[in-house]
Specification:
By secondary structure, this protein is mainly beta. Helix content is 4%, strand content 48%.
Protein backbone atom coordinates (compact mmCIF):
# COMPACT_ATOMS: atom_id res chain seq x y z
CA UNK A 1 0.00 0.00 0.00
CA UNK A 2 1.37 3.41 -0.88
CA UNK A 3 1.38 5.82 2.01
CA UNK A 4 0.51 9.48 2.01
CA UNK A 5 -2.51 11.60 1.30
CA UNK A 6 -3.67 11.62 -2.29
CA UNK A 7 -1.32 8.88 -3.44
CA UNK A 8 -2.88 6.47 -5.89
CA UNK A 9 -2.03 2.95 -6.81
CA UNK A 10 -3.42 0.66 -9.46
CA UNK A 11 -3.39 -3.12 -9.24
CA UNK A 12 -4.41 -5.51 -11.99
CA UNK A 13 -4.74 -9.18 -11.09
CA UNK A 14 -5.59 -11.79 -13.70
CA UNK A 15 -6.74 -15.12 -12.35
CA UNK A 16 -6.49 -18.41 -14.18
CA UNK A 17 -9.52 -20.56 -14.76
CA UNK A 18 -9.62 -22.92 -11.86
CA UNK A 19 -7.65 -26.06 -11.49
CA UNK A 20 -9.89 -27.06 -8.66
CA UNK A 21 -12.09 -29.91 -7.53
CA UNK A 22 -13.34 -32.18 -10.28
CA UNK A 23 -16.60 -30.73 -11.54
CA UNK A 24 -19.60 -33.04 -11.86
CA UNK A 25 -19.47 -32.67 -15.64
CA UNK A 26 -20.37 -36.24 -16.56
CA UNK A 27 -22.82 -36.98 -13.75
CA UNK A 28 -25.82 -35.85 -15.79
CA UNK A 29 -24.93 -38.27 -18.61
CA UNK A 30 -22.49 -40.92 -17.35
CA UNK A 31 -20.85 -43.05 -20.00
CA UNK A 32 -18.93 -46.05 -18.65
CA UNK A 33 -18.04 -48.50 -21.42
CA UNK A 34 -20.75 -50.97 -20.38
CA UNK A 35 -23.57 -48.42 -19.94
CA UNK A 36 -26.91 -49.24 -21.56
CA UNK A 37 -30.22 -47.43 -21.84
CA UNK A 38 -33.45 -48.59 -23.47
CA UNK A 39 -35.93 -45.93 -24.56
CA UNK A 40 -39.33 -45.98 -26.19
CA UNK A 41 -40.36 -42.97 -28.22
CA UNK A 42 -43.43 -42.06 -30.24
CA UNK A 43 -44.97 -39.14 -32.06
CA UNK A 44 -48.69 -38.68 -31.50
CA UNK A 45 -49.34 -37.80 -35.17
CA UNK A 46 -46.54 -39.18 -37.36
CA UNK A 47 -45.40 -42.28 -35.47
CA UNK A 48 -47.96 -43.23 -32.80
CA UNK A 49 -46.66 -46.80 -32.41
CA UNK A 50 -43.74 -46.74 -29.92
CA UNK A 51 -40.25 -47.44 -31.25
CA UNK A 52 -37.76 -49.16 -28.95
CA UNK A 53 -34.14 -48.02 -29.07
CA UNK A 54 -31.22 -49.66 -27.30
CA UNK A 55 -28.52 -47.07 -26.56
CA UNK A 56 -24.93 -48.04 -25.74
CA UNK A 57 -21.49 -46.41 -25.59
CA UNK A 58 -19.73 -46.67 -28.95
CA UNK A 59 -16.40 -45.17 -27.88
CA UNK A 60 -14.92 -42.58 -25.54
CA UNK A 61 -11.78 -40.60 -24.77
CA UNK A 62 -11.53 -39.88 -21.05
CA UNK A 63 -8.60 -37.51 -21.50
CA UNK A 64 -10.54 -35.30 -23.91
CA UNK A 65 -13.90 -35.76 -22.19
CA UNK A 66 -15.49 -37.01 -25.42
CA UNK A 67 -17.71 -40.01 -26.02
CA UNK A 68 -20.15 -41.34 -28.61
CA UNK A 69 -23.53 -42.93 -27.93
CA UNK A 70 -25.07 -45.26 -30.49
CA UNK A 71 -28.49 -46.81 -30.77
CA UNK A 72 -29.97 -49.87 -32.42
CA UNK A 73 -33.51 -50.48 -33.62
CA UNK A 74 -34.22 -54.08 -34.61
CA UNK A 75 -34.45 -54.48 -38.36
CA UNK A 76 -33.21 -50.95 -39.09
CA UNK A 77 -29.48 -51.17 -39.84
CA UNK A 78 -27.80 -48.26 -41.58
CA UNK A 79 -24.55 -47.50 -43.35
CA UNK A 80 -23.36 -45.19 -40.58
CA UNK A 81 -20.90 -47.62 -39.03
CA UNK A 82 -19.19 -50.08 -41.36
CA UNK A 83 -17.73 -51.98 -38.39
CA UNK A 84 -21.17 -52.44 -36.90
CA UNK A 85 -23.74 -52.37 -39.71
CA UNK A 86 -26.59 -53.11 -37.31
CA UNK A 87 -26.15 -49.66 -35.74
CA UNK A 88 -29.10 -47.40 -36.50
CA UNK A 89 -27.34 -44.19 -35.52
CA UNK A 90 -24.83 -42.45 -33.29
CA UNK A 91 -24.16 -39.02 -31.75
CA UNK A 92 -20.78 -37.78 -30.43
CA UNK A 93 -20.75 -35.73 -27.22
CA UNK A 94 -18.09 -33.50 -25.67
CA UNK A 95 -17.84 -32.45 -22.02
CA UNK A 96 -16.78 -28.81 -21.77
CA UNK A 97 -16.42 -26.27 -18.99
CA UNK A 98 -19.73 -24.71 -20.09
CA UNK A 99 -21.68 -27.97 -20.32
CA UNK A 100 -22.37 -30.98 -22.51
CA UNK A 101 -22.11 -30.28 -26.26
CA UNK A 102 -22.39 -32.15 -29.55
CA UNK A 103 -19.82 -31.93 -32.33
CA UNK A 104 -20.95 -29.23 -34.78
CA UNK A 105 -21.29 -30.30 -38.41
CA UNK A 106 -23.91 -32.29 -40.25
CA UNK A 107 -21.50 -35.22 -40.73
CA UNK A 108 -20.65 -35.50 -37.04
CA UNK A 109 -23.60 -37.77 -36.36
CA UNK A 110 -25.46 -40.29 -38.45
CA UNK A 111 -28.66 -42.32 -38.61
CA UNK A 112 -31.33 -43.58 -40.93
CA UNK A 113 -33.46 -40.80 -42.44
CA UNK A 114 -36.78 -40.15 -40.70
CA UNK A 115 -39.86 -42.01 -41.95
CA UNK A 116 -41.24 -40.45 -45.11
CA UNK A 117 -44.40 -39.26 -43.36
CA UNK A 118 -42.44 -36.92 -41.04
CA UNK A 119 -42.39 -33.18 -41.86
CA UNK A 120 -39.21 -32.02 -43.57
CA UNK A 121 -36.74 -30.15 -41.35
CA UNK A 122 -34.66 -28.50 -44.10
CA UNK A 123 -35.38 -25.73 -46.56
CA UNK A 124 -35.05 -28.25 -49.39
CA UNK A 125 -36.08 -31.89 -49.46
CA UNK A 126 -32.99 -33.30 -51.16
CA UNK A 127 -30.26 -34.74 -48.92
CA UNK A 128 -31.75 -33.29 -45.75
CA UNK A 129 -29.73 -34.59 -42.76
CA UNK A 130 -32.14 -33.32 -40.10
CA UNK A 131 -34.32 -35.67 -38.10
CA UNK A 132 -36.36 -35.81 -34.91
CA UNK A 133 -37.07 -39.52 -35.27
CA UNK A 134 -35.03 -40.87 -32.35
CA UNK A 135 -34.52 -40.23 -28.66
CA UNK A 136 -31.02 -38.74 -29.01
CA UNK A 137 -32.08 -36.57 -31.95
CA UNK A 138 -34.98 -35.24 -29.89
CA UNK A 139 -32.50 -34.49 -27.09
CA UNK A 140 -30.07 -32.50 -29.25
CA UNK A 141 -32.54 -30.82 -31.66
CA UNK A 142 -31.88 -27.10 -31.54
CA UNK A 143 -29.32 -27.55 -28.75
CA UNK A 144 -26.00 -28.78 -30.00
CA UNK A 145 -23.84 -26.29 -28.14
CA UNK A 146 -24.62 -26.90 -25.40
CA UNK A 147 -27.15 -29.70 -25.05
CA UNK A 148 -27.06 -29.22 -21.28
CA UNK A 149 -25.51 -26.05 -19.86
CA UNK A 150 -24.04 -25.86 -16.44
CA UNK A 151 -23.83 -25.65 -13.60
CA UNK A 152 -27.54 -26.33 -13.07
CA UNK A 153 -28.45 -23.76 -10.44
CA UNK A 154 -31.68 -21.97 -9.63
CA UNK A 155 -32.53 -19.43 -12.31
CA UNK A 156 -29.87 -20.69 -14.74
CA UNK A 157 -30.62 -20.08 -18.43
CA UNK A 158 -28.66 -20.50 -21.66
CA UNK A 159 -29.05 -20.34 -25.42
CA UNK A 160 -27.88 -22.92 -27.94
CA UNK A 161 -27.38 -23.35 -31.64
CA UNK A 162 -28.88 -26.36 -33.35
CA UNK A 163 -27.62 -26.56 -36.92
CA UNK A 164 -24.42 -25.61 -38.71
CA UNK A 165 -24.54 -22.48 -40.84
CA UNK A 166 -24.65 -24.61 -44.00
CA UNK A 167 -28.23 -25.54 -43.12
CA UNK A 168 -29.51 -21.97 -43.43
CA UNK A 169 -32.15 -20.70 -43.90
CA UNK A 170 -33.75 -23.54 -41.92
CA UNK A 171 -31.53 -22.92 -38.87
CA UNK A 172 -32.78 -23.96 -35.45
CA UNK A 173 -31.92 -22.48 -32.06
CA UNK A 174 -33.14 -22.87 -28.50
CA UNK A 175 -33.38 -20.96 -25.25
CA UNK A 176 -33.28 -23.21 -22.19
CA UNK A 177 -34.10 -22.77 -18.51
CA UNK A 178 -33.38 -24.94 -15.52
CA UNK A 179 -36.71 -25.22 -13.68
CA UNK A 180 -35.50 -26.99 -10.53
CA UNK A 181 -35.68 -30.52 -9.18
CA UNK A 182 -38.78 -32.68 -9.55
CA UNK A 183 -39.72 -36.26 -8.65
CA UNK A 184 -40.58 -38.44 -11.63
CA UNK A 185 -41.62 -42.05 -12.20
CA UNK A 186 -40.72 -43.91 -15.40
CA UNK A 187 -40.70 -47.64 -16.28
CA UNK A 188 -36.95 -47.83 -15.53
CA UNK A 189 -37.63 -46.46 -12.02
CA UNK A 190 -41.11 -47.35 -10.75
CA UNK A 191 -40.28 -45.66 -7.48
CA UNK A 192 -39.96 -41.85 -7.83
CA UNK A 193 -36.50 -40.47 -8.53
CA UNK A 194 -35.38 -36.85 -8.29
CA UNK A 195 -34.67 -35.22 -11.63
CA UNK A 196 -33.40 -31.87 -12.88
CA UNK A 197 -36.11 -30.39 -15.10
CA UNK A 198 -34.94 -28.40 -18.12
CA UNK A 199 -37.30 -26.68 -20.54
CA UNK A 200 -36.27 -25.36 -23.96
CA UNK A 201 -38.10 -23.09 -26.37
CA UNK A 202 -37.04 -24.27 -29.83
CA UNK A 203 -37.31 -22.02 -32.88
CA UNK A 204 -36.91 -22.96 -36.54
CA UNK A 205 -37.95 -21.03 -39.62
CA UNK A 206 -37.63 -21.80 -43.31
CA UNK A 207 -38.08 -25.59 -43.16
CA UNK A 208 -40.45 -27.35 -45.54
CA UNK A 209 -42.17 -28.94 -42.57
CA UNK A 210 -42.68 -25.76 -40.55
CA UNK A 211 -43.75 -25.45 -37.79
CA UNK A 212 -42.85 -29.02 -36.71
CA UNK A 213 -39.25 -28.02 -35.93
CA UNK A 214 -40.39 -25.41 -33.41
CA UNK A 215 -41.96 -25.97 -30.02
CA UNK A 216 -41.25 -26.60 -26.34
CA UNK A 217 -39.08 -29.46 -25.13
CA UNK A 218 -38.93 -30.63 -21.52
CA UNK A 219 -36.18 -33.02 -20.40
CA UNK A 220 -35.95 -34.71 -17.02
CA UNK A 221 -32.30 -35.48 -16.21
CA UNK A 222 -31.49 -37.91 -13.40
CA UNK A 223 -28.02 -37.61 -11.93
CA UNK A 224 -26.03 -40.79 -12.49
CA UNK A 225 -28.35 -41.91 -15.30
CA UNK A 226 -29.04 -39.24 -17.93
CA UNK A 227 -32.37 -38.24 -19.52
CA UNK A 228 -35.25 -40.38 -18.29
CA UNK A 229 -38.02 -38.55 -20.15
CA UNK A 230 -38.19 -36.16 -23.10
CA UNK A 231 -41.38 -34.46 -24.24
CA UNK A 232 -41.68 -32.09 -27.20
CA UNK A 233 -44.83 -30.09 -27.81
CA UNK A 234 -44.50 -29.18 -31.48
CA UNK A 235 -45.80 -25.85 -32.71
CA UNK A 236 -48.94 -25.79 -34.81
CA UNK A 237 -52.68 -25.54 -34.58
CA UNK A 238 -55.17 -27.85 -32.89
CA UNK A 239 -53.96 -31.42 -32.85
CA UNK A 240 -50.28 -30.47 -33.12
CA UNK A 241 -47.89 -33.39 -32.66
CA UNK A 242 -46.40 -34.39 -29.31
CA UNK A 243 -43.18 -36.43 -29.20
CA UNK A 244 -42.43 -38.44 -26.07
CA UNK A 245 -39.46 -40.60 -25.15
CA UNK A 246 -39.33 -42.52 -21.87
CA UNK A 247 -36.55 -44.62 -20.32
CA UNK A 248 -37.62 -48.26 -20.04
CA UNK A 249 -34.50 -49.76 -18.44
CA UNK A 250 -30.82 -49.03 -17.73
CA UNK A 251 -27.89 -50.49 -15.85
CA UNK A 252 -27.06 -47.04 -14.44
CA UNK A 253 -27.99 -46.18 -10.86
CA UNK A 254 -29.72 -42.92 -9.87
CA UNK A 255 -27.68 -40.70 -7.57
CA UNK A 256 -28.81 -37.76 -5.42
CA UNK A 257 -28.43 -34.63 -7.54
CA UNK A 258 -25.83 -32.06 -6.49
CA UNK A 259 -26.99 -28.88 -4.85
CA UNK A 260 -28.62 -26.33 -7.12
CA UNK A 261 -28.27 -23.47 -4.62
CA UNK A 262 -26.69 -20.27 -5.95
CA UNK A 263 -23.96 -19.42 -3.44
CA UNK A 264 -22.50 -16.65 -5.58
CA UNK A 265 -25.21 -14.86 -7.58
CA UNK A 266 -24.33 -13.09 -10.83
CA UNK A 267 -27.66 -11.29 -11.23
CA UNK A 268 -27.34 -7.87 -12.80
CA UNK A 269 -28.44 -5.03 -10.51
CA UNK A 270 -27.98 -6.79 -7.16
CA UNK A 271 -26.31 -4.56 -4.57
CA UNK A 272 -24.49 -5.56 -1.39
CA UNK A 273 -23.15 -3.36 1.40
CA UNK A 274 -20.22 -4.64 3.43
CA UNK A 275 -18.31 -3.51 6.51
CA UNK A 276 -14.75 -4.68 7.02
CA UNK A 277 -12.02 -4.09 9.54
CA UNK A 278 -8.52 -5.21 10.39
CA UNK A 279 -7.76 -5.55 14.11
CA UNK A 280 -4.32 -3.87 13.81
CA UNK A 281 -4.28 -1.85 10.62
CA UNK A 282 -7.87 -0.62 10.21
CA UNK A 283 -9.82 -0.97 13.47
CA UNK A 284 -12.46 1.54 12.35
CA UNK A 285 -14.99 -0.16 10.01
CA UNK A 286 -14.73 0.63 6.32
CA UNK A 287 -18.10 0.45 4.54
CA UNK A 288 -18.27 -0.28 0.81
CA UNK A 289 -21.10 -1.02 -1.61
CA UNK A 290 -20.73 -3.63 -4.35
CA UNK A 291 -23.06 -3.74 -7.36
CA UNK A 292 -23.35 -6.40 -10.07
CA UNK A 293 -23.14 -4.80 -13.50
CA UNK A 294 -22.91 -6.26 -16.99
CA UNK A 295 -23.93 -9.93 -17.34
CA UNK A 296 -23.33 -12.25 -20.31
CA UNK A 297 -23.01 -16.03 -20.65
CA UNK A 298 -22.99 -16.60 -16.90
CA UNK A 299 -20.26 -14.03 -16.33
CA UNK A 300 -20.66 -10.68 -14.61
CA UNK A 301 -18.76 -7.59 -13.51
CA UNK A 302 -18.86 -6.19 -9.96
CA UNK A 303 -18.21 -2.54 -9.09
CA UNK A 304 -17.10 -1.28 -5.67
CA UNK A 305 -18.16 2.13 -4.35
CA UNK A 306 -17.03 3.77 -1.09
CA UNK A 307 -19.55 4.66 1.58
CA UNK A 308 -17.08 5.64 4.31
CA UNK A 309 -13.93 7.62 3.55
CA UNK A 310 -10.91 5.90 5.10
CA UNK A 311 -10.11 4.41 1.72
CA UNK A 312 -10.72 6.17 -1.57
CA UNK A 313 -11.35 3.14 -3.76
CA UNK A 314 -12.42 2.52 -7.35
CA UNK A 315 -12.53 -1.19 -8.12
CA UNK A 316 -14.10 -3.62 -10.56
CA UNK A 317 -14.01 -7.42 -10.67
CA UNK A 318 -15.00 -10.03 -13.21
CA UNK A 319 -16.45 -13.40 -12.20
CA UNK A 320 -17.76 -16.37 -14.12
CA UNK A 321 -19.62 -19.52 -13.11
CA UNK A 322 -18.68 -22.67 -15.01
CA UNK A 323 -18.38 -26.36 -14.29
CA UNK A 324 -14.94 -25.78 -12.74
CA UNK A 325 -16.54 -23.42 -10.24
CA UNK A 326 -16.95 -19.71 -9.59
CA UNK A 327 -13.72 -18.04 -10.68
CA UNK A 328 -12.31 -14.53 -10.55
CA UNK A 329 -11.34 -13.57 -14.10
CA UNK A 330 -9.84 -10.17 -13.40
CA UNK A 331 -9.53 -7.45 -10.77
CA UNK A 332 -8.79 -3.75 -11.20
CA UNK A 333 -8.41 -1.39 -8.25
CA UNK A 334 -7.31 2.17 -7.60
CA UNK A 335 -6.97 3.48 -4.09
CA UNK A 336 -5.59 6.27 -1.90
CA UNK A 337 -5.36 6.30 1.91
CA UNK A 338 -3.43 7.54 4.94
CA UNK A 339 -3.69 4.11 6.55
CA UNK A 340 -0.55 2.01 6.80
CA UNK A 341 -0.90 -1.63 5.78
CA UNK A 342 1.88 -4.25 5.77
CA UNK A 343 3.39 -5.05 2.38
CA UNK A 344 2.17 -7.91 0.23
CA UNK A 345 3.91 -9.89 -2.52
CA UNK A 346 4.58 -11.65 -4.67
CA UNK A 347 8.24 -10.93 -4.12
CA UNK A 348 9.13 -11.15 -7.79
CA UNK A 349 6.50 -8.63 -8.94
CA UNK A 350 7.25 -4.93 -9.48
CA UNK A 351 5.92 -2.68 -6.72
CA UNK A 352 3.19 -1.33 -9.01
CA UNK A 353 1.83 -4.84 -9.52
CA UNK A 354 1.89 -6.03 -5.92
CA UNK A 355 -1.33 -7.25 -4.37
CA UNK A 356 -3.30 -4.95 -2.01
CA UNK A 357 -6.28 -5.54 0.27
CA UNK A 358 -8.61 -2.55 -0.15
CA UNK A 359 -12.03 -4.21 -0.58
CA UNK A 360 -13.82 -7.29 0.81
CA UNK A 361 -13.45 -8.94 -2.59
CA UNK A 362 -9.67 -8.49 -2.47
CA UNK A 363 -9.68 -10.64 0.65
CA UNK A 364 -12.09 -13.15 -0.91
CA UNK A 365 -10.34 -13.76 -4.26
CA UNK A 366 -6.78 -13.68 -2.89
CA UNK A 367 -4.70 -16.79 -3.51
CA UNK A 368 -6.09 -19.07 -6.18
CA UNK A 369 -9.24 -20.12 -7.99
CA UNK A 370 -11.94 -21.29 -7.75
CA UNK A 371 -13.75 -19.24 -5.15
CA UNK A 372 -16.32 -22.03 -4.95
CA UNK A 373 -16.78 -25.38 -6.73
CA UNK A 374 -19.64 -25.63 -9.21
CA UNK A 375 -21.56 -28.06 -6.99
CA UNK A 376 -20.04 -27.53 -3.52
CA UNK A 377 -20.32 -30.33 -0.97
CA UNK A 378 -18.74 -30.85 2.43
CA UNK A 379 -15.27 -32.33 2.06
CA UNK A 380 -14.53 -30.91 -1.40
CA UNK A 381 -10.98 -29.56 -1.50
CA UNK A 382 -8.63 -28.00 -4.05
CA UNK A 383 -5.16 -26.51 -4.00
CA UNK A 384 -3.02 -23.91 -5.70
CA UNK A 385 -0.98 -25.00 -8.68
CA UNK A 386 2.52 -23.99 -9.68
CA UNK A 387 3.11 -22.77 -12.30
CA UNK A 388 -0.22 -21.11 -13.11
CA UNK A 389 -1.60 -17.68 -13.91
CA UNK A 390 -2.96 -17.49 -10.36
CA UNK A 391 0.48 -18.21 -8.93
CA UNK A 392 2.15 -15.60 -11.12
CA UNK A 393 -0.38 -13.01 -9.92
CA UNK A 394 -0.41 -13.87 -6.20
CA UNK A 395 2.61 -16.05 -5.46
CA UNK A 396 0.46 -17.97 -2.98
CA UNK A 397 0.40 -21.68 -2.19
CA UNK A 398 -2.23 -23.41 -0.10
CA UNK A 399 -5.46 -25.35 -0.05
CA UNK A 400 -9.20 -24.66 0.22
CA UNK A 401 -11.84 -26.97 1.66
CA UNK A 402 -15.63 -26.90 1.91
CA UNK A 403 -16.42 -27.36 5.60
CA UNK A 404 -20.20 -27.64 5.24
CA UNK A 405 -23.32 -25.66 6.08
CA UNK A 406 -23.35 -23.48 9.22
CA UNK A 407 -25.72 -20.91 10.65
CA UNK A 408 -24.12 -17.47 10.64
CA UNK A 409 -25.50 -14.18 11.96
CA UNK A 410 -24.46 -10.86 10.46
CA UNK A 411 -26.17 -7.44 10.38
CA UNK A 412 -27.97 -8.42 7.13
CA UNK A 413 -29.61 -11.41 8.87
CA UNK A 414 -29.11 -15.00 9.87
CA UNK A 415 -28.21 -17.42 7.08
CA UNK A 416 -27.57 -21.10 6.56
CA UNK A 417 -24.27 -20.54 4.81
CA UNK A 418 -21.71 -22.67 3.03
CA UNK A 419 -18.34 -22.44 4.79
CA UNK A 420 -15.06 -22.52 2.84
CA UNK A 421 -11.73 -22.49 4.68
CA UNK A 422 -8.41 -21.71 2.97
CA UNK A 423 -4.84 -21.95 4.23
CA UNK A 424 -2.61 -19.48 2.39
CA UNK A 425 1.15 -18.95 2.31
CA UNK A 426 2.96 -16.05 0.61
CA UNK A 427 6.67 -16.51 1.45
CA UNK A 428 8.26 -13.44 3.01
CA UNK A 429 4.92 -11.70 3.63
CA UNK A 430 3.18 -12.61 6.91
CA UNK A 431 0.22 -10.35 6.08
CA UNK A 432 -0.36 -12.41 2.93
CA UNK A 433 -0.28 -15.70 4.83
CA UNK A 434 -2.78 -17.23 7.21
CA UNK A 435 -6.21 -18.84 7.35
CA UNK A 436 -9.28 -17.43 5.62
CA UNK A 437 -12.81 -18.60 6.39
CA UNK A 438 -15.62 -17.47 4.10
CA UNK A 439 -19.37 -17.89 4.52
CA UNK A 440 -21.57 -17.92 1.38
CA UNK A 441 -25.38 -17.79 1.65
CA UNK A 442 -27.83 -18.92 -1.08
CA UNK A 443 -28.91 -15.98 -3.21
CA UNK A 444 -26.62 -13.60 -1.28
CA UNK A 445 -23.07 -14.68 -1.95
CA UNK A 446 -20.42 -13.66 0.55
CA UNK A 447 -21.99 -12.77 3.90
CA UNK A 448 -18.97 -13.08 6.18
CA UNK A 449 -15.19 -13.50 5.91
CA UNK A 450 -12.53 -13.81 8.60
CA UNK A 451 -8.86 -13.74 7.56
CA UNK A 452 -6.43 -14.54 10.38
CA UNK A 453 -3.19 -13.15 8.96
CA UNK A 454 0.32 -14.35 9.73
CA UNK A 455 1.18 -10.97 11.32
CA UNK A 456 -1.40 -11.75 14.05
CA UNK A 457 -3.94 -9.25 12.71
CA UNK A 458 -7.46 -10.33 11.75
CA UNK A 459 -9.53 -8.95 8.89
CA UNK A 460 -13.30 -9.33 9.29
CA UNK A 461 -15.96 -8.72 6.63
CA UNK A 462 -19.72 -8.78 7.28
CA UNK A 463 -22.70 -8.11 5.05
CA UNK A 464 -24.71 -5.14 6.27
CA UNK A 465 -27.59 -5.46 3.79
Amino acid sequence: MLRGKGLLFCAVALAALAVGPAASADGWLPHPADATWTYQWSDSVYSPTPTTENVTVKDQNAKLGSFTLQWIVDGQPSGCDQKNPTTTGFVPFQETNAGLTVALGASSWCSNPPPSQFPGLCSVAQQCPNSMASTLYDLIWGSLAPVLGGPLQKGFTWTSSGLPATQEPAAVTSASSYLGQESITVPAFPMPVLAAKVQSTITQAGAIGDPYGSGTRTVWWVYGVGPVKIQILHAGGAGAAVTTSVLQSTNQTPQPPPTDAVYFPLTKGLTFKYSWTNSKHMPKPEVQQITIGAFLNNSASFTVKNVSKQLAVAATYGFTSRLDGVTNLWSRTQSATLLKFPPLGPAGAPAAKRIHFVTPFDLMVYGFNPILPAYPAAGDSWASTKPSLDYSAYGVTGQSKVIGIQSVKVPAGTFQALVVRSTLSQPGFPYGSGTRTSWFAPGKGLVKLVFAHGDHSVSTVVLLK
